[in-house]
Amino acid sequence: MPKGSALVVEPAYAKINLFLKVLGRLENGYHHLQSLMVFCDVGEWVRVQPSTHDGVAVEGPMASGLHSKPTSDNLIIRARDAYRRATGDAQPVHLTLHKTMPVSSGIGGGSADAAATLRALNALHDSPLSAAELAKIGQMLGADVPACLGSSTVMLNGVGAELAAAQFDADARFLLLVNPMQSLSTPAVFGRLAASVRKSYPDAIQSSWTLNDVKAMPNDLTKAACAFCPDIKTVLDQLNRVADADFTGMSGSGATCFALFAKRDAARAALSAIRLAHPNWWAAIGETR
Question: Looking at the 3D structure of the chain, how many domains does it have?
Fold first, then answer.
């Protein structure tokens, strides 16, 4: 890795599961999933700069949601260490995470941060790893990290690494994201699922999805997430009453919910209404990438 004043800043885009189907639990404890995942320009950023010693800083409006002092379980630190193991490079770096999204909110904040860290480290390296090699590292860090590395629309079929490029053919491309400022444990939500989840594994997965396709495929985790966080239902009820929303749902294991709009002005009006009615909630709008 080059030394000196070089630095790289990488965006960490929000991930939204337009639908999420749970098809079965595997012997290793993971679940077989199907999900259409899109990304939008709401997000955070990670800055990586070569230094004389390792350092980590977390700043931004949501920094307090993380530990006051970053520890080894922070995904950007784990990503740095995993990249070092893969490359054998021990060049000290200073990591800065600008945190703007709620922690454990179902929109891939930590996974996107880890992916941004891997991309930044790779951009600084004299012999960068291939996309496949980065994805292999990402899979070890978390199920959403491989998708976050590319941050483009993908279809997931499996536990995280089985990704295929996909298209979401809809005029509704503006997203309103709303979180009631409650964190949810992904393992806890999955653990509450009924034991009788579907066991079928379809042979073919669509590569192109319409709005009507997505509307017919809800998030299987919504009921389980609402059991831990009843405010999710309140958020969804609010979004379902918003004018001009084409589709609403919950992303990932919650608690962030979303509404899709065809017009930016409609999304902005809904954002203003949500913030006025619930000033303690987190809300943001963005456009799908």
Answer: 2
Sheet order of strands, 257-261 included: 247-250, 257-261, 174-179, 282-287
- The reply to whether 264 and 132 lie within a common domain is no
- Please give the positions annotated as active site: 15, 144
- Mean pLDDT of each 10-residue bin along the chain, 289 residues long: 71 97 78 92 96 94 75 88 94 96 94 98 95 95 94 89 90 96 90 63 73 92 95 96 95 97 96 96 96
Answer yes or no: is 3 within a domain.
no
Residue 175 lies in a domain: yes
Q: State whether 159 and 208 are in the same domain.
A: no
Question: How large is the angle between the packed helices 75-87 and 131-141, nearest 10 degrees?
Answer: 130
CA distance 152 to 123: 19
* Residue from 19, 3, 41, 31 nearest 175 by CA: 41
285 vs 39, 63, 66, 229, 258, CA distance in Å? 12, 20, 23, 23, 9
- Domain residues for the domain of 153 are 8-164
**Model confidence pTM above 0.85:** yes
**Domain annotation covers residue 201:** yes
